[in-house]
Design goal:
single chain, about 140 residues, mainly beta, eight-stranded antiparallel β-sheet, 1 helix, about 5% helix, elongated
Length: about 140
């Protein structure tokens, strides 16, 4: 895998997900199982155009096609210095084409634990005191 001429560290980065997107940055998480952690983040600063599903698998990065470049030239991303294109499996019958236009990328390797979702059910853990609660007078 190579993103704009930069290679991320060796690893299994087949599972991808958008973890944050606002006017200042687009954060993609990658790993082999995103349910509990991820080992790589790709942060695109000042995203001007983003067309990708919220989660995807097996991304294959490639240069943008002339049609994709022309599409960006007709919109707010006409002067973006970075254009990233890739094909990915988003759970449908065929791969989807994804396109990102931004100011620049930052690749951050490292283990990042994922907090549980707010609506996730947590299993009851062991009690910290083996008996009934102590009186509090």
């Amino acid at each position: 895998m190579e993103i704009t001429g930069r290679k991320p560290p060796e690893g299994s980065w087949w599972d991808g997900e958008v973890i944050a997107c606002d006017a200042g940055r687009l954060r993609l998480a990658a790993g082999y199982d995103l349910t509990r952690h991820h080992g790589l983040e790709v942060i695109f600063t000042d995203p001007r155009f983003v067309s990708c599903p919220p989660s995807f698998q097996d991304p294959v990065f490639r240069p943008p096609t002339p049609e994709e470049t022309a599409r960006l030239a007709r919109g707010p991303a006409d002067d973006a210095p970075l254009v990233v294109a890739f094909e990915a499996d988003a759970g449908g019958r065929a791969a989807v084409s994804c396109l990102i236009a931004a100011e620049g990328p930052e690749i951050r390797p490292g283990f990042v634990p994922r907090p549980p979702r707010a609506d996730a059910q947590t299993a009851a853990g062991p009690r910290d005191w083996p008996g009934p609660p102590l009186p509090t007078d």
